[in-house]
Amino acid sequence: SYVLTQPPSVSVAPGQTARITCGGNNIGSKSVHWYQQKPGQAPVLVVYDDSDRPSGIPERFSGSNSGNTATLTISRVEAGDEADYYCQVWDSSSDHYVFGTGTKVTVL
Amino acid sequence: EVQLVESGGGVVRPGGSLRLSCAASGFTFDDYGMSWVRQAPGKGLEWVSGINWNGGSTGYADSVKGRFTISRDNAKNSLYLQMNSLRAEDTALYHCARGLVPAAMTFDIWGQGTMVTVSS
To answer: How far is CA B7 from the centre of its chain?
Structure first.
């Protein structure tokens, strides 16, 4: 089955840039989606199809995808960005949705 | 307001059964594929099962295949998950989620979830 690997944690100071990676075999050939989940809340889609943002999501959230790594970038990080972030793809070989292992972003 | 509200969770013994429901409102339910996604306490997200707009196509994670059945009633704007032969490892918060159109490769709306605890 297809595996998506994320770093367990990322720490960033307010106003700086956070980059969260999502590794998978030839992930650049797939569409990658990203979710933000705050404690006790449901996940929220923040980036879809590698780099598109749903309405209401700040431009500070952006995504890229190439080769074996996709990246979610959060610019000008704010305290409210502290959350768990998950990447996700559709694996056509198994007809399964696959989630990454998740990354906890801490704002220092 | 677009909303998904899950219900039906609870405590059940290993080997038991439970039926989860998800009530949709604020959008045309039968325009969308739907899925169930679960999250064990302190763990990550795991896709459980999905169904297309008319119920004609379904899919299951390997961990639940043969034990869980997804269904929908478009007349009632509702999604269901029948869970049989429950195991301790099925303990989780179960969310229903709407597939983002048109390709439904991701989920744009999530419910808050209903908790299932499998314990003797």
So the answer is: 10
pLDDT tens for each residue of A54-89: 999 999 999 999 999 999 999 999 999 999 999 999
* Residue B119 DSSP label: -
Q: How far is A46 from chain B (nearest CA, A)?
A: 9
Q: How many Cα atoms occupy the beta-carbon half-sphere of B112 within 13 Å?
A: 7
Q: Establish whether the linkage from the previous residue to B41 is cis, with ω within 30° of 0.
A: no
CB B25 within 8 Å of CB B3: yes
Nearest CA in chain A to B107: A45
Does residue B48 contact residue B96 with C-beta atoms inside 8 Å? no
- B26 secondary structure, DSSP code: S
CA distance B26 to chain A (A): 17
Q: Do A99 and B108 touch (CB under 8 A)?
A: no
Sign of the alpha-carbon torsion through B47, B24, A48, A82:
negative
